[in-house]
Amino acid sequence: MKKPSRHASLGYSLYELFSSMRFAIGLLTIIAIASVIGTVLKQNEPYPNYAFEFGQFWFIAFEWLGLYDVYHSAWFLTILAFLVVSTSLCILRNGPGFIKDMKAFREKATDSSLAAMQHSVEFDAADAAPEQLQGYLQAKGFRVRQHRRDDGTLVLAAKKGAANKLGYFFAHIAMVVICLGGLLDGNLPLKLGELIGRVVPETRDLPQSQIPEQSRLSAHNLSFRGNVTVAENKSADVVFLNSGNGYLVQELPFIVTLKKFHVDYYSNGMPKLFASDIVVTDKASGKETPATVRVNHPLIVDGVAIYQASFGDGGSPLSFKAWNLEAPQMPPAKLDGVSLSSQPLRANGHQYNLEFGEFRLFNIENMERAKPEGAKSLAERMHDAREVKRDKELKNVGPSITFKLRDEQGQAREFHHYMSPVEQEGASYLIAGVRKTVAEPFQYLRIPFDDELKIDTFMRLRAALKNPALYDEIAARSAAKAMQGSAISPAMRQQFQDSVKWVLARFGEGGFTALEQFLDARVPADKRQAVAQTYVKILQGAVVDVMAVADERAGAKPLAQDGRHYRFLLDSLVAASSLNDYGAPVFLQLDGFTQVQASGLQMTRSPGKTLVYLGSLMLVIGIVLMFYIREVRLWIRLGSGRVRVAMTSNRHNRDLDEDFGRHRDAIQQLVRGA
Predict the structure, then answer these.
(1) Under 8 Å CB-to-CB from 525, ≥6 apart: which residues?
(2) Residue 166 pLDDT more than 70?
(3) CA–CA distances in Å: residue 668 to residues 147, 258, 390, 661
(4) CA pair distance 603, 309, nearest whole angstrom
(5) Under a CB-based contact definition with an 8 Å cutoff, are residues 474 and 545 in contact?
(6) pLDDT tens-place string over residues 526-562
(7) Left if phi > 0, otherwise alpha if psi is -120 to 50, otherwise beta: which for 141?
(8) The 3-state secondary structure of 620-670, one letter per residue
(9) What is d(CA 158, CA 145) in angstroms, rounded to the nearest whole number?
(10) Chain segment 253-278, per-residue pLDDT in tens
(11) CA-based, 20 to 30 A from 500: which of 15, 66, 145, 445?
């Protein structure tokens, strides 16, 4: 006898492996785990976001595993392909047997096999009418076939619920159909193009028109999902696809023009609903399709679904008051700009680049209350001005703008300025944030508004604090008040004036930080607390005279002498100190704007979506057939004055016991009646 060849044995072993249930279950387990990862880990984000979140080590590990785009990774698509092959082979291997079993009545079952069944009984019956028994079975939904044996006995073989076997086919074919849909939407041609180097993601920040062909995808691309932001009265004919550490430009078969963006808000400023009035123009025919796209109500054109995904700033004209922090005596200059753009800025003999970010009309903040402050340092006793104190309720704090100021060496700081007054503990403040790197949180300072809700009074006070020419007059006024209140003697007047001037000079140079540095360097540790309290008292008393002198020089109305305005002066000291860490030559106060909105549209082409839906429906049908339809077979053997009734099912449970008892009793009665 000829032995099978080695290659034939290997091929058969592979066939056995691929068509086995355990191999398919193993693949399904891996896909399930990958799907969990793809659901928990946000997919297709820019790579810097992942690097910032996970750190360099895990970022590289997850990148190597392809976890940032699980559903389009090579290993995931390979598993899908293997699952298609495995399930198809499983159907081919086991399908004929299932079909044969569905058709078979097993009418040739022997007496021994019938007697061996768990549900089997035999009883006497002199005369039994086969037609009457067959009619009973058919009335109960059975299909019946008669078989006359060689010994003259008659077997009635009945069955129902054969559709249970169809559940196997529906479930397995559903898996094949779903996987094929996944392979279609996985865009295998694009992955192969990236593998052989025909498609290369662009990593540079270039205008769309300058992106090379190797980073562009044609409008005939099989599958894609990308985003584009379109400002009002602007158009777009491409979308951008994140791809690894770069991006690809996907050409569209049409042009999308945003005519008008609509957004409604709740009373607290949270967006209620938003929609885009768009016009889609076919590039080939010029046909225009006007439509309104809402959330969960996409427009489908040429197989591309256009979804309303987000909204934002579209490049809004802005106006600012530019306060020169290095020359505080100068009045503010007018500065115009446009959000999402950049422009040069020259200040105090130095050249800067002003890079505007997104303008936001509404800012919903969770206004968390401030924590109690300790007495660890001089600045903490005067409150930490670099932290926004918030109430616990959601509140709209009004318009804001982010921007970066980049110096000639390329170093930049990022700023986040609000426009409207923010009320905290009965006082109104202008909130401004600053940070050195994007990895840091913003540190916020609070500039107090005056009675007219302007910061002019604060800026006037700050200019006086930084003007040494005013120190003599301020010190003289403070000393006169101290003598009038018997706080000092005439002999101490000059010494007190010198102390006031010294404290003002140190504070004018560097705020509370300069005073603390002096205390740490010159005052013994056991005496710093007492000396610090003395400096605080001097500064708190002198600030009233600083404000009075500043108002007189400016010809402004004197500040009222009451608790509310004294709090304004103390808050101004904190803000003036914090501006030393602001790190910019000018303070840009947002003064006006003309909002231009933009709509964020997501465009997808998913040819496999229909297959996935079809496969899901087939899977549901298969599960229903397998779990809710019970296959039942029943035999009645007539002959030699005796009747045997046997019954079996693919699921042995209490229902089968009850059904068998019911059929047995009914058949006994029919036989006796005959």
Answers:
(1) none
(2) yes
(3) 21, 80, 85, 11
(4) 9
(5) yes
(6) 888 988 899 989 999 999 999 999 999 999 999 999 9
(7) left
(8) HHHHHHHHHCCCEEEEEEEECCEEEEEEEECCCCHHHHHHHHHHHHHHHHH
(9) 6
(10) 999 999 999 988 877 667 888 899 99
(11) 445
- Evaluate whether 59 touches 51 at the Cβ level (below 8 Å): yes
CA distances from 164 to 19, 101, 156, 624 (A): 22, 11, 22, 9
φ, ψ dihedrals at 202, nearest 5°: -85, 135
**Cβ atoms of residues 276 and 306 within 8 Å:** no
CA dist., res. 579 & res. 465, Å (int)? 13
Token output for 297: 């109500």
Query: Residue 635: beta bridge partners?
Result: 157, 646
Using alpha carbons, list the distances in angstroms from residue 451 to 41, 422, 458, 567: 50, 14, 11, 13
The tokens for 591 are: 């003064």
Kindly state the tokens that stand for 459: 């800026």
* Residue 54 scores a pLDDT above 50: yes
- What is the token pair recorded at 38? 């793809």
Taking residue 285's Cβ as centre, other Cβ atoms within 10 Å add up to 8
Contact 538, 544 (CB under 8 A): no
Distance CA 533, CA 381 (A): 10
Please give the pLDDT value at position 257: 96
Structure tokens at 42: 């946000």
pLDDT for the residue numbered 641: 83
CB 456 within 8 A of CB 430: no
Give percent of the chain above pLDDT 90. Answer: 60
Q: Can you spell out the DSSP letters for 402-435?
A: EEEEE-TTS-EEEEEEE-S-EEETTEEEEEEEEE
**Mean pLDDT score, 349-368:** 88
